[in-house]
């Protein structure tokens, strides 16, 4: 199976005192294995909401009304619908199989915990079995050797510690370690697990090119620059080697030099880990740098999807053309998109872009245009073009 994620007919609404907001309307989207898919569009078009829907993090008064989000966890297994599984199952997937890099690193980090503690927390939550095995290996090595009998007699706590970890290894998420952790004299036995997590956290900070990682792990978020904070957030997101990474405008608050470094880091990590990336941005220049395919969103729906070189060389949808014309270019005056973004409480009928579109026809005002595949891999939702709807279900 080539698709890692398949979204079909995703509809999200917000029930407010002023009325019902149709935030996402029958969204269809495929993301392939080991590709970077870019989601672009104006602020408020539904890019971040799509990402939060995948993780099932829509807060009231928002509600996922309908649709399916099929995720291929392991090759050879049947995809699972993330909207159909229980809360415990989706929590196990968040942070381990699917991770998200948020737009503002300062708001994603807890100011009262060190960077090392926050990266360790992700590892303790999702890689407990691996940590337990490492702890057992370390204790066994300490008990072994020429004077192993002397060591055993002199270190009864190590025997108790190993026994405890062996019980945890049989069921890493049992209540046993929590019960032991409440006994002050026994709490020391669980410290080795945290020590192993700290080592892995420091290693992860090194992987995202943070210099002097041991020192940074002991620092608090306010002691780091914006670029360093973002690297720490990326380390948290990649700590469990997720197969799918969501990056929500991760370079917006950074200067151009740091932005380029973060983009290069994401490219390298994606290639090394063979993962897929959903990259959300309003910057078409950044999207051209990092993405393989791009989807253009407007008012809660997709209007065009194409390979990045095809989209920039041959944009078809009037909104895509208007977006590209609004980008500043050397020797050219940027052209603003006429009209205003529609009120989400009172969306226009038919094609939502038709009040601002110079090519709108009668059908545009009455019927929502279906997504058509005009050429191989180039999809468009516009009544000015004819074609057959592409896509498959999971």
| CATH homologous superfamily title of the largest domain | P-loop containing nucleotide triphosphate hydrolases
Write the H/E string, N to C: EEEHEEHEHHHHHHHHHHEHEHEEHHHEE
Number of helices: 17
**Any idea what the radius of gyration is?**
25 Å
CATH topology of the largest domain: Rossmann fold
User: Main sheet: which strands, in order across?
Assistant: 6-7-8-3-9-10-12-11
Using the alpha-carbon principal axes, give the shape.
Answer: elongated
Largest sheet: 8 strands, mixed
Number of strands: 12
Structural class: alpha/beta
Description:
By secondary structure, the chain is of the alpha/beta class. It has two domains: 3-111 and 220-340, 3-Layer(aba) Sandwich (Rossmann fold), CATH 3.40.50; 115-207, no CATH class. The protein is built from 17 helices and twelve strands. The strands form two sheets. The protein has an eight-stranded mixed β-sheet with strand order 6-7-8-3-9-10-12-11, sandwiched between helices. The chain has a four-stranded antiparallel β-sheet with strand order 2-1-4-5, with helices on one face. The longest helix has 18 residues, at 256-273. The radius of gyration is 25 Å and the shape is elongated.
Task: Lay out the secondary structure.
Layout lengths: L2 E14 L2 E14 L3 E5 L6 H8 L7 E10 L8 E2 L5 H7 L4 E4 L3 H4 L6 H12 L1 H16 L4 H7 L1 H15 L5 H6 L2 H4 L3 H17 L5 H5 L8 H13 L5 E5 L7 H18 L2 E5 L3 H7 L2 E6 L2 E7 H6 L4 H8 L36 H5 L5 E4 L2 E3 L14
Parallel strand pairs: 3-8, 3-9, 6-7, 7-8
Antiparallel strand pairs: 1-2, 1-4, 4-5, 9-10, 10-12, 11-12
Helix pairs in contact: 4-10, 4-12, 5-7, 5-10, 10-12
């Amino acid at each position: 199976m080539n698709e890692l994620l398949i979204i079909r007919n995703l509809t999200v609404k917000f029930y407010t005192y002023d009325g019902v907001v149709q935030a996402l309307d029958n969204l269809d989207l495929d993301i392939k294995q080991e590709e970077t898919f870019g989601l672009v569009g104006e602020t408020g078009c539904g890019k971040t909401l799509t990402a939060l829907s995948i993780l099932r993090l829509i807060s009231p008064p928002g509600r996922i009304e309908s649709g399916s989000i099929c995720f291929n966890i392991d090759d050879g297994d049947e995809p699972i619908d993330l909207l159909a599984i229980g809360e415990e199952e989706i929590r196990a997937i968040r942070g381990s199989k699917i991770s998200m890099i948020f737009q503002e690193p300062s708001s994603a980090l807890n100011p009262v915990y060190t960077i090392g503690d926050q990266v360790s927390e992700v590892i303790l939550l999702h890689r407990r079995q691996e940590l337990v095995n490492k702890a057992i290996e370390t204790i066994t090595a300490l008990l072994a050797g020429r004077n192993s009998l002397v060591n055993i007699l002199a270190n009864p706590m190590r025997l108790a510690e190993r026994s405890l970890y062996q019980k945890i290894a049989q069921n890493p998420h049992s209540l046993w370690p929590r019960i032991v952790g409440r006994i002050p004299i026994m709490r020391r036995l669980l410290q080795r697990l945290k020590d192993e997590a700290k080592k892995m956290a420091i290693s992860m900070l090194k992987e995202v090119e943070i210099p002097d990682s041991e020192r940074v792990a002991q620092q608090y978020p306010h002691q780091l620059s914006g670029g360093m904070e973002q690297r720490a957030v990326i380390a948290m997101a990649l700590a469990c080697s997720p197969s799918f990474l969501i990056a929500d405008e991760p370079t917006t608050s950074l200067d151009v030099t740091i932005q380029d470094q973060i983009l290069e880091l994401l490219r390298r990590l994606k290639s090394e880990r063979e993962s897929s990336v959903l990259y959300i941005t309003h910057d078409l220049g950044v999207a051209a740098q990092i993405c393989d395919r791009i989807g253009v969103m407007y008012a809660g729906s997709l209007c065009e999807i194409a390979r990045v070189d095809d989209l920039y060389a041959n944009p078809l949808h009037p909104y895509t053309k208007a977006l590209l014309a609004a980008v500043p270019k050397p020797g050219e005056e940027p052209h603003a998109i006429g009209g205003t973004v529609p009120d989400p409480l009172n969306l226009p009928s038919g094609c939502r872009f038709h009040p601002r579109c110079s090519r709108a026809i009668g059908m545009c005002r009455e019927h929502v245009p279906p997504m058509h595949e005009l050429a191989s891999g180039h999809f468009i939702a516009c009544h000015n073009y004819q074609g057959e709807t592409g896509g498959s279900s999971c």
